[in-house]
Amino acid sequence: MKKDVSFAPRRHGISPLIGGFIGISYPVLLTAISLSVGFRRAGDMGEFAATLAASVLFLIAAPTAWVLSFSFIDVTRFTVLVFGIVTSFPIWYILGVALARGSGDWLVFIRRYVVVCVTWTAFNLVAIAVVASLTA
Q: Which residues lie below 8 Å from residue 135, measured CB to CB, with a gap of 6+?
């Protein structure tokens, strides 16, 4: 009787924990870029445009921040930031875990993650453009 015994390390795919933390990397990067603009300074039109772009980046990173955009909810900028981060980053983490469990190796994981990030960003930009054209 012959048994196939191999001492080579077995690959069980990507660790879901690492995949989850990589899943958070894109919204963390967008949030860091959006927070680098500075909210408390008065500036010229260039800083106004940068602040507007930063808010769009933050809404792409934290899509649940739209919940606080209703006119009857009176919130501060800090509340919007904290609410968006606390509610959106777990969604990105779960996405990273799901992609890690479905991927066999790192190349497939990174490719799928980049496709998801690019698709999500493009979808949001198109949605913002449609809303802007409807209100104009």
A: none
Does this model's pTM top 0.85? no
Task: Please report, in tens digits, the pLDDT of each residue of the chain (136 residues total).
Answer: 667 776 665 566 788 899 999 999 999 998 888 887 765 555 555 666 777 788 888 888 888 887 777 777 777 778 888 888 899 999 999 999 999 998 888 999 999 999 999 999 999 999 989 988 998 7
Q: Which two tokens stand for residue 84?
A: 């968006």
CA-based end-to-end distance of the chain: 78
For 118, the token pair is: 């690019």
- The tokens describing 36, both together, are 């680098």
Six token digits for residue 83: 């609410």
